[in-house]
Structure formats: C-alpha cells, structure tokens
Specification:
Layout: H1 10-19, H2 26-36, E1 41-44, H3 51-70, E2 78-81, H4 85-98, E3 106-109, H5 116-124, E4 128-131, H6 133-141, E5 152-155, H7 158-161, H8 164-175, E6 182-187, H9 195-201, E7 206-209, E8 220-226, H10 232-240, E9 248-251, H11 255-267, E10 272-275, H12 281-292, E11 298-301, E12 316-319, H13 326-333, E13 343-349, H14 354-364, H15 393-401, H16 409-417
Parallel strand pairs: 1-6, 1-7, 2-4, 2-5, 3-4, 5-6, 8-13, 9-11, 9-12, 10-11, 12-13
Helix pairs in contact: 2-3, 3-4, 6-8, 13-14
Bound molecules: adenosine monophosphate (AMP).
Adenosine monophosphate binds near residues 51 and 338.
Length: about 425
Amino acid sequence: MLFENLNIIDPILKALKSEGYTSPTPIQEQSIPAILEGNDLEGCAQTGTGKTAAFAIPTLQLLYSKKRAEKGPLSITALVLAPTRELAIQIGESFTSYGKYTGLKNTTIFGGVSQKSQTDALKAGVDILIATPGRLLDLMQQKYVSLEHIKFFVLDEADRMLDMGLGHDVKRIIAKLPKNRQTMLFSATMPQGISKLIDSILIKPVKVEVTPVSSTIDTIKQAVYFVEKRNKKSLLIHLLKDKAFESVLVFSRTKHGANKITGDLIKVGIKAQAIHGNKSQSARQLALSNFKEKKIRVLVATDIAARGIDVEKLSHVINFDLPDVPETYVHRIGRTGRAGAEGAALSFCDPEEREALRNIEKVISKSIPVIEDHPYLMSNSSTVIRTSGEVKNKDLRKKVYDGKKCQNNYFRKAKKSS
Ligand code: AMP
C-alpha cells in the first residue's frame, strides 16, 4: 500500500515524499480513508506508529478542498487539542511539514510564554489551531479565538485529555464547539472508565484499533530491576557507565525528584537536564531541544514528557520511579522504539512499588523480565523476583543493539528514500 492509493491530493503527496514517507503505517492506512469519507473516528494504536499523520493528513486534505470551494477570509476551521505544550508544538510542526504545499496556515498556542506572538498569529488569520486547553480557554475569554467555524476537531492523547486533571477544561471547550463537526479521537491507551464520555463526544464513529488497547510494541525490550529506594541513584549511575546507553530519558515521579536526579548525574560528569512543570517554558523547550540534538545524554522528566514526544534514536527509557497509573507506563516507554526502531525500557522497582508493577503487567498483559545481575539487587529479592522471564543484562543489550534494524516495512522504506 502506498500513499498514492489513499486518494491523497498532490500537494500533500509531494510533502510526504519530501519527508521520506512512501507507505502509510497501519493506523494511517485505516484512519485516512475513514476520515476523508467524513466519519468521526476513534483511533487506538501503539505509541510511535504514526498517529499524528493519521489525523493531520486527512484534516489538511478536507480543509484544502473546503477552503478552495469557499475562498472566504481565513477562520479557524480545525482545532487540535493536546495535553502538553511540547506535544502541541510537535503536532504544529507536523501540520507545517505535511501542509507546506497546501497554503493552509496553522498556529500553536500554549501557556507558560507571553501570549503576544500567539495573538499576533491569530489576528493574521489561521486555518488550523493546535492548542493546550488552558491557554485556549484564556484566549477564548479574551476574544482572540472563536470556535464558531470549527468543522474538524481532534483530541490527541484522548484519555489523558478527558481525565481528572484536564477533563474539566476540555469539556468546557467541547461545549463551545459547533454540533455540526467531524471529531477524531486518538490515543495509545483507552481505559474503560472513559468510554461513556467518548460515546458522548463522537457520533457513529469508525473505530480503528490496529493493536490491542494498551499493548506495548515488541521492538521495545522491557526489563525490571528490583532495587531498594536508597540505591536507585547508584544503580542509575552504574547503568550509565555503559556507552550503549546513548540517549536516555529518565522518568521521575516528582519535580523535586527530577531535579535531584539531574544534580546527581551532573556531579558524576554525566550531561543531564531536567524537564518538568516548575521550569519556565523556555527552559523546558531548551532541555528538550538539547536532548533531541544529542547535546545532552540524559533528560530527566516528569510525566509531562510521557506523551507523544518524538525523539529520534532514543536508546533507553528508564523508569526511576514506576508510575501510579499503569497506562502512563505504556506512554512513557513508547518514547523509545519509535518509527520501527528498537529501544529498551528499564524500570526500577522498590518494595513499595510492587503493586504498581503488578498493575502495569496486568494492563500490558505481559510479565516484564527481571534483571538480576546488577550490584544493587535487593537483599530480600528472592521474595519478589519471579522465576520466569529473567534476562541477563548482556542479553538485553545484545537484543537491543545487534543490528538496530527497522522492523516495519514502511519505516524501512521511508529511511531509504530520505
Ligand atoms: P507519531 O506516532 O505520530 O509520533 O509518529 C512516530 C514517528 O513515525 C515520527 O517520527 C514520524 O515522523 C514517523 N512517521 C509517521 N508516519 C510515517 C510513515 N508513513 N512513514 C515513515 N515514518 C513515519
């Protein structure tokens, strides 16, 4: 299957070609025709499998046809909501790349920075608005944004958008949208609890599920280390002595913890920066771009970096702390093993986190192999280490680094032609 076979218009095909994309990924292959036919859509696919293009391509195409027919002044006709500022920026960049020959304009708005450049862009007119909920509500209140012409609405990372933290704001935004619109909802995880809410947002949706909900991709090798809380720092430094840990995203449960881990790594000469909600937006963006450009080896993050963030050649995700919400594990580890590449996700588990580990294994329907040969193995580990699924450190490295091959055809092809 090629993009040409999906009835995609030339300006978009040309842009995809320059991105090096030739074949749609499974989520794209199934979602693009359904969206182009005008359906609402509920899309669920594993992390890193091309969800952004699955909604961006058909949205651009539908908008392009509509705008050509109408030729009126620019008005915001498509709205994409994302949970974090970094993800919103990344989605905006994708719309810019895929839409570069369409003449359609997009802008991204998010909090933590001055609103001036954002309101200037809005005043100049945009077709597609990508936003985080808080800043959008703010600018709506100030009358910089009107949602009355919205025809296409995308909720990315839908489960996160509808949960307790953001759900209230998102519902307020949805209430202001015209009823006559096309809605697309995407996520890698869709916990049962929100299905009723989803049903109330979508009308007769086409459901696209390319893999079991909440599953993790096989190109990500997972392992767990049982370790006392006090030894986690030493274990991390021990692991980072290995040069194979080229580009490592470390997740910490708290902002304070992220700062502490970063400081500890810097003290022993490892280049690291932290990204979390207490940092200024410019510091957050700088840390992320330093990490993407490989200027630093380790980025220590809270869960603001768990969703959607796409870093090329990210070799390892390390869960310094396990997340309380098991679905968050799926998103965190999905920062590696993207676009068909391989990666490793290692989790530290102290005695208090055993329940969290069990819940994660239930959600992913897999038992995570245990690594025993490390110097900080818990003294009473025999009570927690399961007998099955153990792997040796060197086996894990071998699996991850032998041949670094791409597993999926579409990604392999894309790499060749780029
Ligand atoms: P996403 O899941 O949207 O974050 O995409 C994951 C990665 O796959 C990104 O680096 C995209 O640039 C890349 N990608 C998306 N679609 C394709 C495709 N059809 N062919 C090759 N690479 C793709």
